[in-house]
Amino acid sequence: MPNDLMRFSVAMPExxxxxxxxxxxxxxxxxxxxxxxxxxxREALIEARCEVPAAQVMGTxxxxxxxxxxxxxxxxxxxxxxxxxxxxxSMHVHVDEHNCLEVIVLKGFxxxxxxxxxxxxxxxxxxxxxxxxxxxxxxx
Length: 140
Ligand code: NI
Known about the structure:
Helix content is 39%, strand content 28%. By secondary structure, it is an alpha+beta fold. The longest helix has 18 residues, at 33-50. Bound molecules: nickel (II) ion. Residues 67, 92, 94, 100 line the site of nickel (II) ion (NI). Nickel (II) ion binds at residues 67, 92, 94, 100.
């Protein structure tokens, strides 16, 4: 059966195993070595799937910017309206008197999602940002 759990043994240097066990412990009592290894394998597979050029992905772009920067909000809105078909949702948080945080959820081919993210991240006044990609596509 494809979803039966299969056992295999893994050899690794002791110091690496010690660090791994510390990470397993930090993830809480509901996690054990096997579950954390499964999580890491899934993460690596999703990352690999997102590298395939034709992959359909979901991207979460988080940016921080100063809302006093001249017409920055307008520029960011303009980019998102230009690509309205790929912008699934966005959330704006007023962090403090000066800073805003925006989370923009994008959907599409990995190259297009990456291109929009690069454009937003490259807009003058955006202080910091990061794109996280995921996909539900199976690997072929
Ligand atoms: Ni704001």
